[in-house]
Prior knowledge:
Layout: H1 3-42, H2 48-99, H3 114-196, H4 201-226, E1 240-241, H5 242-253, E2 262-268, E3 274-275, H6 279-301, E4 306-315, E5 318-325, H7 348-354, H8 361-371, E6 375-380, E7 386-393, E8 411-412
Helix pairs in contact: 1-2, 3-4, 5-6, 6-8
Amino acid sequence: MNLRQRIRAWLALALLLALVSLAAGADLLLSQLHGVAQEILTQPLANSAELLRSHYRATQAALWLGALGVAALGAALTWSLLQMLVIGRLEQAARTLAVDPLAAAEPSGSHRDEIAQLLAALDGYRRALGQEQASRASQLEALQSLRGAADAVVVQLREADRLALVGRVAMGMAHEVGSPLAIVGGYLERLHTLEQQQAPLADRLHCIDQADHALARIHAILSDFAEPGLPRSRVEDRPCDLVAVALRTLGQCEQHPRARRLTLDLQPQWPQHLADASASHIEQVLTNLVVNAADAMRSAGGKSGGRVEISLVRQGDWQELRIDDDGPGIPASALEQVFDEFYSTKDRADQASRGSGWGLGLAVSRRIVHGYGGMLTASESPLGGARMTVRLPVAPGQRRAARPSGPVEPLQA
């Protein structure tokens, strides 16, 4: 049984039920009216009112039953007519699609109805969805290929970072070892000259002692680089006397090939300036600052000499080590930038000839000073060049202690 036959069967059943309901309601209504007439004639007048009310309610129920039957009949007729119309349109569309599936989408005169338009729209949506799916698939393939390329780039960047870290460590090691190694070379050259001049044994032993001290500094620097994270402080030679450290540093800088022509002066405020820092680390910092001043003066004006003054001042619980030079100075805009790694104002040709000027000395020096809770700053010098100020905490036993009776005379290095 197809859908049309089912609709017709339901319609016949609804008509039959509606007719039965109407017949039953009419029979019930006639029976009630006949019974009322008989009882009114036989019953006394006093019971007539109550009898009429009971029969009124029964009659009302019969009328409601009849009304429901009529409503059911109307609903069945309406639903059947609508179904017949829709089924007719669907059958017409099905026949059209069976003959030519593309004819339903063509706006011909026989197919200009709502169902044909709906089918045309659905077909268009289907085609658009297919195109969108194909586009999404191609985009997904492109994204997967890009992801593979990005993963490869990440691997390359990580490898480059590791190589850059190794390179920075190697450059830092070469830079920091270079100064004491140059001092060793200077003292060996000096020792050779003294041997030729048959100088006193004490002078030759002094050269050997200073060269041995420079070699000890190289060993300490290499020990620092061998430990993870590059230690920021040492405890072996801490605290230290900055006056003794400065005297030793200036004596060694006299044999440094890039600083031996400088005029070096030391001006301490007191005979002793104890600081809570490692002597070898502060000597490394002071050597970097003196050699850096010599390089700056040579790179700017080409002069082989210059003046560097080192002064020591105590201010409260801080020791200040000031290094002044009469070189070209530092522009105000670069007073902080000079402490960045690989920043340098030195001439590139001069850097290549000396194998220096990588812009690491000031960066390493500031890191060392900060490791002891101090500060390293740059400013303008009264000599006309640059001033580097190393600020370190005094030794724990000397904090807020009484000062010596008076200043001492400046020392000549």
